[in-house]
Design a protein that fits this description.
Helix content: 40-55%
CATH class: Alpha Beta
Order of helices and strands: EHEHHEHHEHEH
Strand order of the largest sheet: 2-3-1-4-5
Distance between the termini: 10 Å
Number of domains: 1
CATH superfamily: P-loop containing nucleotide triphosphate hydrolases
Number of helices: 7
Largest sheet: 5 strands, parallel
CATH architecture: 3-Layer(aba) Sandwich
Amino acid sequence: MDVKKEKLEIIALVGPESTGKTTLSEQLAAHYGGSFVPEFAREFLEERNGKYSQADLPTIAKGQLNLESQTIAKDAKPVFCDTDVVVVIVWHEFKYGEQSAELEALFKLQPERKYLLTYPDLPWQDDPLRENPKDLNAIFELYVSTLNRLGVDYSIVNGNGSNRLKNAIAALTD
């Protein structure tokens, strides 16, 4: 049984680096005939040769919110987001060791959504913008605690290849 498109509005994929968020969000958008929202941080960081500071993180979160808003307003639903403000919240806490009230306030501006948390069971893919190949499990646990603290609806998605997509679809069908 496949979930009815009308029940799904916004789905955000979150998780550690190199866990297939982009691929999976694109696959899900194609499967459901929905829209895909790319990761704003990638464009932001590419323009700056990967350099950023703690002060840039709210700008990145706002850029992501803007991309989402544009897509939600004009494109087909459901909308699959290759990251959202939760990623920036976790990124901030992991890298700088503290929570950010400003990022938490931006999180509250997002429309309600379902989260798919990608498990770090895929082979690491090198990318000049990725920083933490040895910390994926610790980052994953920080995602779990953050999503629980924020009180959002989420499912963990694991598996390789087509199994990952099947598991994501199953999580959205429940």
